[in-house]
């Protein structure tokens, strides 16, 4: 499946935005290292998810990637089974009753995202980039948020500048704020140094387990906004 892209949008996310070789090397290296060294952690998380609630340990969800092309993104299950059966696709929020106790820890430490290292190896995602969203929400956001399609110019990421500077998406307003960070990142065209800084900041968030406090959206050049 591919999300509909207007002709003027295609010019922003064409082949000229292919992943630079150094960035791809970093992606593959981090993914292989993470999956190899993190194997015991992956097994422990899987066991904890299985013991707490019925259902699958992993789940795959359709997301929109580069050039509007959909792919299956993997995560550890952090909610009860069929969490959106009645509500349909909606954003999660703080103290969401659908989130399990183990899931709450996984989401706070971002360990639920570890299976996406497989998506990175498959070339569907990068370690760093704009977070991918579900097709049904993308259709709405592409109409409601000017410039939202610019996020499709690069591979989506497990983490990103918007993620370390802002909290989870909760409304169209927060999406607009995070889009400014995504644009700043895309303008740097796969900066190796910036990716390392974002990875380091992400590790800090994972180790602290503290909820992310939203920072004001950048109105200055990225070099200053990322100080």
For the structure shown, list the relevant keywords:
227 residues; mainly alpha; two-stranded parallel ribbon; 4 strands
Task: Describe the protein in words.
With 227 residues, this protein is mostly helical. The protein has one domain. It is 45% helix and 9% strand. It is built from ten helices and four strands; from the N terminus they run H-H-H-E-E-H-H-E-H-E-H-H-H-H. The protein has helices spanning 7-10, 21-37, 39-52, 101-109, 116-121, 135-144, 161-165, 172-187, 192-208, 222-225; strands at residues 58-64, 70-76, 126-128, 157-159. The strands form two sheets. Strands 1-2 form a two-stranded antiparallel ribbon. It has a two-stranded parallel sheet with strand order 3-4. Helix 2 crosses helix 3 (39-52) and helix 3 packs antiparallel against helix 4. It is globular and about 45 Å long. The N and C termini lie far apart (39 Å). The model is unreliable at 5-16 (pLDDT under 50).
Helix content: 40-55%
Structural class: mainly alpha
Distance, first to last CA? 39 Å
User: Which residues sit in consecutive blocks of at least 5 with pLDDT less than 50?
Assistant: 5-16
Count of domains: 1
Q: Main sheet?
A: 2 strands, antiparallel
Mean pLDDT: 82
Spatial arrangement of strands, main beta sheet = 1-2
Extended strand count: 4
Q: How big a fraction of the residues is strand?
A: 5-15%
Q: What is the molecular shape?
A: globular
Oligomeric organization of the protein chains: single chain
Radius of gyration: 17 Å
Provide the succession of SSEs.
Answer: HHHEEHHEHEHHHH
Number of helices: 10
């Amino acid at each position: 499946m591919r999300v509909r892209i207007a002709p003027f949008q295609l010019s922003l996310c064409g082949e000229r935005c292919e992943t630079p070789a150094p960035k791809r090397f970093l992606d593959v290296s981090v993914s292989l290292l993470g999956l190899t060294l993190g194997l015991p952690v992956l097994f422990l998380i899987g066991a904890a998810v299985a013991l707490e609630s019925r259902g699958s340990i992993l789940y795959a969800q359709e997301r929109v990637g580069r050039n509007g092309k959909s792919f299956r993104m993997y995560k550890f299950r952090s909610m009860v089974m069929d969490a959106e059966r009645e509500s349909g696709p909606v954003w999660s929020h703080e103290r969401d009753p659908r989130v399990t106790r183990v899931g709450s820890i996984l989401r706070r430490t971002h360990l639920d995202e570890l299976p996406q290292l497989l998506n990175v190896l498959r070339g569907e995602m990068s370690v760093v980039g704009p977070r991918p969203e579900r097709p049904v929400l993308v259709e709405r956001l592409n109409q409601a948020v000017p410039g939202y399609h610019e996020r499709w110019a690069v591979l989506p990421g497990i983490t990103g500048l918007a993620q370390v500077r802002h909290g989870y998406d909760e409304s169209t307003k927060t999406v607009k704020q995070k889009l400014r960070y995504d644009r700043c990142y895309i303008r740097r065209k796969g900066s190796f140094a910036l990716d390392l800084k974002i990875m380091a900041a992400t590790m800090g968030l994972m180790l602290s387990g503290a909820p992310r406090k939203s920072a004001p959206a950048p109105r200055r050049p990225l070099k200053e906004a990322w100080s």
